[in-house]
Structures are given as C-alpha cells and as structure tokens.
Amino acid sequence: MTMSAKERITWLRKEIQKNAHQYYDLDQPSIEDFEYDALVNELRQLERVHPSLKDEDSPTETVGGSVRSEFIKVSHETPLLSLDNAYNSDDLRSFDKRLRKEISGDFEYVVEYKIDGLSVALRYEGGQLVQAATRGNGEVGEEVTANVKTIKTIPNRIDYKDPLTVRGEIYIGKTDFKAMNDQQVLQGKPAFANPRNAAAGSLRQLDASIAASRPMAIYVFEILKGAPETFNRQDEAFDILRNLGFKTVAPLVFKEIEDVVTYCAEMIDKRHQLPYEIDGIVVKVNQYDARQALGNTAKSPRWAIAYKFPAELAETVIRDIQVQVGRTGVLTPLALFDPVTVAGSTISKATLHNQDFISEKDIRIGDVALVQKAGDVIPAVVKVLPEKRVGILAPYVLPENCPVCETPAVRLEGEVALRCPNPTCPAKLRRKIIHFVSRAAMNIDGVGEAIVDQLIEENLIKNIADLYTLKDKRETLLALERMGEKSVDNMLDAIEKSKQNDVYQLISGFGIPHIGLKAAKTLAMGFGSLEALMQATKEELVAIDEVGDKMADAVILFFANEEHIQIIKALKEADVKFTTRLKQTTEGPLQGKTVVVTGTLTQYTRDEIKAEIERNGGKATGSVSKKTDYLVVGEAAGSKAEKARTLGVPVLTEEEFKNLLT
User: Does the predicted model carry a pTM greater than 0.85?
Assistant: First the structure.
C-alpha cells in the first residue's frame, strides 16, 4: 500500500507541476480549474495519510509559478502568499473552529471577491509608481512596470510621499473579454481560455504597446508595507486605499461564520451579475493583531481562506458542427448542442475555434460533452466524454473548401486558422458590412443582420461603399420583404447621417487587423485625416504612442490593397467625412478634468458623451473617486451619484454638462 501511495504521490506531483507551469508561466491551461483542484486535494489527502512521504518541494507547500527568463527578477519585501481553499460550508466551519481554538477574544471576518486575475505588487516612492511585479513564486516575481503603467485604473502618482507597497489583482471584465476573443477569432488567432489567462498573457507582454491595447483593470486589496495612517483592521485598510485613489471592492464584515456561510452560498448565483469574473470569496480575519497571533505557513496565511465556487458545468450532446466564415475569411467551426442552462442562461452553441482545438479535445458530432461559460459570458466546450460515445463516431475535420463560395481554403504560415482567400466571398462581405454598421464602427441604426443578408442576396451591395448608393434605390428597397416606408426611410437617414461621423469611426469600420476603436482614435488624432494616414510610412506610424510594429504593418498592408483603394475613392465621392474632430492637445473647458457618466442618458449615447468629454480636453472614466471632477447623471443614476455626493464631487445633469462646454 505504501509503494502504491508513493507512486501515486510521485505521479500527482509531476502532473500538478506540469499543469501549474502551463497555467502560471505559459498562461495556457490544459485542464480546468476544478480538475486541477481535484489533483491538489488528492495529493494533500495522501500526504496527510502518509506524512513520511511529504516533501517541502511538494506543490502543496509552494506558491504559484516560476519567473520567465525574459523578465527582470524582483524579490518581494513582503511575500505574496497564496490561500488555502474551502469547497463547502463544512470547510468554512472547520476553518472557524480551528481559529477559535488558536486565538482568544472576539474577532470578525471580512469577505472580499476572489477576482480571477493576476496578482501584482505595486511599489510607490515619493508618490510615484516606481515598480510593479507579478507574484511569481511568492518570493520572487517578474518586473512588469512598463506594462502596468498602461492600465488606466492604476494611479501613476498618489498623494503620499513615503514608501508604500500595495497588492492588487489585475483582471479583464466580462464584456471586454468577449470583445477580445471575438477579435482573436476574426484575426485567426487562438481564443483566450478565460479572463484570467487573457489578463496574465496581456500583462506579461514584452511589448508594452500590446499591453496598452488590452482592456486590463485592477482592484487593490492589501497594503503590504507603509501607509499614511495607522490601521488595525482590513476594512480600515480599504478606506486608506480608496482615499489614495486606488480602485477597490468594498468588503463586507461579519461577526459569525454562519453569516459568512450564508453569504458565500448566495454569491454562487449572484456572481453572474458582476461585470467581472470571480471564482470564489476570500474570507479573512479582520483584526491585524489576531492575524499576527495566527501567523502563516510556508505557503498561506493561517488567518484567511478562499471559498471556491463549485464548477458550473453542464452535460449535453453535440448534434452538429457548422462552419462560419468571418470578414477576414477565417473559417470558424461552431458546435450546436442540446440547450442547457449554465451560469444563469440557456446556451445551445459554442465556437470550437479551429481544427487544432477540435483535434486536441477529440470533439466529434454525437459526443456527450461538458460545457461552461468562460468568464460567465462565452459558451465553451470544456471536454467530451469518450466513455459515453454510442457507436462509432468519425473524427471531425474542417472542410477543404469555403462552405459558402467553395473556394479552396488556405492556411497561412504561422496561423492555426483556415481562411477563404476569395475576396468576393459573400460570407466575408456579410461580416464586413455587419462590422461596418456596428456601434464599434459607423454606428448605423436600422441596418441589422437580416437587412444585410437581403441587400447582399438582391445584389444591392458588393462592398461597404455601396451602402451610400442605396438612397438611389428606394423603390427597390421598398419591394424587399419586411421593408416598409418608415423602416426604409429611417435606414437611409441613418446612412446619410453617418457621413458626418468622425474619421476614427470609418477607420474602425474598415476592420483592419489589430485596429479597434481605441487604436482608430489614436491614428485619427495622430494624422488628422484618412489621406494622411494612407500616406504614412511605418516609421511615422510607430512614432505614434501606442502604435506597434504589428499595427503599423497591418495599416500599410490594408492601404496597399487596390480593392480597398477603390472603396475609399467611392466613399470620398459619397462625401463621407475623412477628417477628425479629435484633438491631440488637452485644451478645452474640461482640460485636465476626470468625468464619470452614469444612468440612462436622453441627449447623448454613451459613445457620444465620451467623445464630447475627450474633444473638450477631459478624460472619461468608469468609477467615482475623490479624483473625479464631475459626475454626469441620467435617469436612475444609482450608487455612483450617492458616492459622488458623499465625496463632494459635483453632480451635473446632461443640460448642466452642455452648459459647462459653452
């Protein structure tokens, strides 16, 4: 039995270390969190039963990952420890029972969201952010200062001159994660497995311009060293962090463990309402003197535990795999399965990304599969269950030809995706038009996917410029199915109005690889007009802040295409605006001001008011702090308005905001 246990322990350690390397160091997990946790728990149990086989280098005694050689090593003054896990209410009660045996006197629990991201330590000196480092193995991390400084929610300066080190979790929100993955798929790149790995991969880029293009944010949750005032409780530490301008999640304080148990159970479902992914609740002793009495193990603080949510997986049957064609020609397989409820909603399909993904997971039509929602947003096939296969199921292989135009598909060097190379493929045109009219581009109301399908089928449009010829085809449009006079006129009015859009919306609408709405604004401000951008050299492009080599190459390649040149000429003839109103300077009535907008607006869309703030020299942000200069409120303003009034931040109606700009 001892030999059997020894062999199992040896295998478990190797398997855990291999998967930890893929998760922490490569940001490419090969198994799900619940599978990894099961391996660790089995190892921990075996080591308890056979203490003579325990080893100080065991994964149960060590923290996180290693430090990549490409990064400068940073030794943490205060170790960045990991947490022991609780998986049910009994584990939480056992944690409480142990603590009450070890310390005397009353204490409270503070609970915080366990945001699924990448832990970092931020060091300030003289009020300036001087160093940022990943957790690494807890003792030594990687310096990522340049990348961290691109994250807007991290203050580069604080109003405190003495040395201060804080710890936070860098993450990517659910909506931003979905948009990132959509862009990855459109460009034929592998999709990110989950928001945590997207954040980790973004932060550990050697090129800071790539990090700057990723929508990372942070919540700071711990003061590691220094502080402008003394404190003896975690909730007091949060007040200090907020007053210094750090973004934090408000903690809750409970006196009894049963209240903690109830809260954790409630959050299993409520977490889906949050704008970011959390994989559990962190439970800590609130009082620091009690923490000091409890101390730490080599890996974890003895005064804290992480309640891990149960894995939200559902079993279903894959009935079919369909292949979609994106606007860049990428062939994307889509699994269609029996509808199941996961993370609060019903899902019936999920992207399978590419052939490599299908082959690696051995996904076949007819398979029983486990599905989840990555980031509580994106449906995903986690794994299939080969033991439940009925009969002989053939391995799935993507078609050799485009499923729409039958052109032989190609696989470009260095890419995992198959592409349709036909420039006139109707499916590519459909995706290009849908993107062009979307809110992330020209924002043309009334041109939905069904309308686009009809326009293409009736041969009324062959490219994006043809949208501006539809005004001469009104009678033909009226003859189309479900196209009444009002809907046709509204659509044509919206198309006509879009001619006056800022050129950054047009640039975004082109769908140039690596160029989203933010990058399009940067290019518009940098060059002022589409003509100037078209003539820019690579040297001129990369000289623009936040524009890297890949972005520059993509822009040059796009404007070197003769088909694109002809479309641009047609857009110019249609009087589509080729210039920008965006300013490179910060001049204007909002110069140097930070503005937050909340509630339902009646005079602006969110994109319009954000553009108006930036046009007038201001900075639009999403959360209220003492550094906010104005809060603009619409209807149902909610908690942000209350917080602004508490902090003394001026609250403006839409009309008052407009008056401020005149």
Answer: no
